[in-house]
Amino acid sequence: MNPYVDISKEVAYALAENLPVVALESTIISHGMPYPHNLQTAEEVAAIIREHGAVPATTAIMDGKIKVGLTKEELTRLASEKEVIKASRKDIAYLAALGKTGATTVAGTMFCAGLAGIPVFVTGGIGGVHRGAESTMDISADLEELAQTNVAVICAGAKSILDLGLTLEYLETKGVPVLSYQTDQLPAFFTRSSTFPSNYQVNHPEEIAAVIDTKWSLGLDGGLVIANPIPEHSALEESYMNQMIDEALQEAGKQNITQKDVTPFLLDFIHKATQGKSLQANIALIKSNAALGAEIAAAYQKQRQ
Ligand code: PSU
Q: From the alpha carbon of 103, which atom of ligand 1 is closest?
C-alpha cells in the first residue's frame, strides 16, 4: 500500500469486501461553510450515506498523511482550525512532504479517492471556468482532474458564480460526460435548471452505474459529472440569486481577490448577503446528493459482480 495513504479500517474493510463506498470532500467543510454548520452537515451527510447502505469516506491530508475516512476529531479540526489549507492537486505533495494539514477540493478528493480505489464521490458543486476567464485564466483544477481520474462525481451542477457555458465546453473538450438526473438541463446549484442542456438525461441509479462501468471498461479514462438538481422545496429564486452573485463578483473584483481565494470569498459573501438562505440550500442539496450517491455506489457494485 502507498506509504502516504492511511485508509480507515471501516473503509478498507468495505473496499476489500466490494461493498459500496462514497468519497466525500473536505474543502466544503473547511472553506465552504461556516462553523458549526460545516461539522454538523458533514456528520449528517455521512449518516445519510450509511442509511442508504454505503460507507462514507471523507478525504483530507492530516499532518502530512493522506487520510481516507476521518474520525470525529479529525472532522472537528477541519471544521474549526483556521490554518487548514485548501488542497487541490497542486498542494498535495507539499502538504504530505512537510506534515501539513489540508482539506481536499473536488480535484484533491478525486485524486485521493482514485488512490484508494473509490469510484463514487459526492459533493455540492464542482469548480469550473470562472466568469471572465478569457482574461484571468481562472479555471478550476477540478476540470482537469475530471479529465484524467476515474471517479464519478455527484453534484448539484455548478454555481453560476462560474461561466456555465464555458465550463460545459471545457468538459466536452476533455471528454467528460455530463449526465443530469431526471432532467435534461444542467442544474445551477441553487436552482434546478439553467439555460444549458446537459449531455444526457438519466433516470435511475442503475442507468448511471451502467454508464460509469461501461466507460471505464472501454478504457475511456477520466471522470463523469452526475448532476442532481437541488430538491424543489429548497431551490432559490433565480433572479434573486443572480443579483447576489453579481454583487459578490463585483466585490471580489474591488478587493482584488485571486486564485484559490476566489471561490471561498464568493461563497462567504453570498452566504452573508442572503442571510443564510444560500447555506440552507447548500445543506439541502448535498444531503440529496449523498442519498443518490450511495444508491449509485450500490448499483455500481452490483453491476460489477
Ligand atoms: N463550489 C461550491 N462549494 C464549494 C466549492 C465549490 O459550491 O465548497 C469548493 C470545492 O471544494 C471545489 C472548490 O472543488 O471549491 C473549487 O475551488 P477552485 O475554484 O479554487 O478550484
A: 11
